[in-house]
């Protein structure tokens, strides 16, 4: 019951950025360039939700609040949702589905290619976010696939850095957070490898324990 209420609260909270955009649109609050405002806002929230998804595992381990894992999938899906809004804003409101213009943009602006790559990588993560997919793929294969979120986060930060060029304050903040989250995972992986090696040395007659890396 507690987890269900938490999920409802997270769901409603995750819709606030969209509600804020809608409110600003209805009250002429999107500034002189509404398309740019929407593009940047949805891009920001895509990265925020990606980083929030990646922060669940460290928080769960450090605080021992194991219920956090129950909201990770929802937060990840909201990352994809805002990524879809970000991508749709570009191809619809900015380019009006003009393929020729989009191809010219890709040739001139590498940050668009990087951003599109990040979005494409999010698609299999969203599609396989169900319990059925975990059973179908198997736990280990599912974990390997969902490590694509690391690359998605990296490409998202690079996309932002190349986009703004001059004012790097916000993308650097995202990059620092992402770096810390990835370094944490590397530290856990190294620690578990060392523990596994010590176990193998102290008990040579037994098979080494297989450590499941739930680092997604």
Structural commentary:
With 216 residues, the protein is mostly helical. Helix content is 81%, strand content 0%. The protein is built from ten helices and no strands. It has helices at residues 2-14, 16-26, 34-63, 69-94, 99-108, 110-127, 131-137, 139-146, 148-164, 169-202. Helix 1 packs parallel to helix 4 (69-94), helix 4 crosses helix 6 and helix 7 (131-137) crosses helix 8. The chain is globular. The model is unreliable at 205-214 (pLDDT under 50).
Question: In short, what is this structure?
Answer:
The protein has 216 residues and is an all-alpha fold. It is 81% helix and 0% strand.
Computed structural class:
mainly alpha
- Biggest sheet architecture: none
Number of helices: 10
Q: What is the number of E strands?
A: 0
**Judging from the principal axes of the Cα atoms, what is the shape?**
globular
Evaluate the radius of gyration: 20 Å
Low-confidence sequence ranges? 205-214
Give the proportion of residues in helices: over 70%
Strand and helix order: HHHHHHHHHH
Strand content: under 5%
Q: Estimate the mean pLDDT confidence.
A: 88
Termini, distance in Å?
Answer: 25 Å
């Amino acid at each position: 019951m507690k987890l269900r209420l938490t999920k409802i609260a997270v769901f409603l909270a995750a819709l606030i950025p969209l509600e804020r955009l809608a409110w600003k649109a209805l009250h002429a609050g999107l500034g002189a360039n509404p398309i740019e405002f929407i593009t940047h806002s949805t891009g920001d929230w895509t990265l925020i939700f990606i980083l929030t998804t990646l922060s669940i595992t460290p928080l769960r381990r450090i605080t021992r609040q194991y219920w956090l894992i129950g909201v990770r999938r929802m937060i990840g899906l909201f990352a994809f949702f805002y990524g879809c809004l970000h991508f749709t804003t570009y191809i619809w409101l900015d380019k009006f589905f003009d393929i020729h213009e989009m191809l010219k943009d890709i040739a001139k602006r590498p940050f668009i290619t990087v951003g599109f790559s990040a979005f494409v990588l999010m698609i299999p993560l969203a599609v396989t976010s169900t319990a059925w997919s975990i059973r179908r793929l198997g736990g280990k294969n599912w974990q390997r696939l969902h490590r694509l979120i690391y690359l998605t986060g990296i490409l998202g930060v690079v996309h932002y850095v190349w986009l703004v060029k001059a004012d790097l304050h916000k993308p650097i903040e995202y990059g620092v957070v992402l770096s810390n989250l990835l370094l944490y995972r590397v530290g856990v992986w190294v620690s578990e490898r060392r523990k596994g090696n010590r176990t193998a040395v102290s008990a040579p007659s037994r098979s080494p324990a297989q450590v499941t890396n739930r680092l997604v």
